[in-house]
Request: fold
Amino acid sequence: MKFSRGTDYALHALAYLVSRKDSDEKIPVADLAKKLDVSSTYLSKILARLVKYKYIIANSGAKGGYSLPADWADISVYDVIVAIDGEPTLFEDSFNHGNECKIQRLMMEVETDMVQSLKKRSIKDLI
Reply:
């Protein structure tokens, strides 16, 4: 599975927030973008999606920025991928032979295993 640049940014942003979880400091998007060496405009769009799914909290104002919710450790890597990219698919069988196609069956099993593995990995595993 190849995930998007957006998912890559989201996972790195979350990893940074997790690494600073013991600090009450809110991280402004400009600081986060500088730390990750990415575009703050694009990162803002990614962070907005994470806010929508309640995977991070946006705090406005002079001392505003982003922080983690209380239940942050329950967020799986798969959750983040779906929030940014939608439901991932690894394999599309051009022939659609159904279950009798061993190639399709094998690829679907591998994809299921990968999804289950990503669901077992919390964002706390990113640090």
Remarks:
- The chain has a mean pLDDT of 90.
- The CA atoms of residues 12 and 104 lie 33 Å apart.
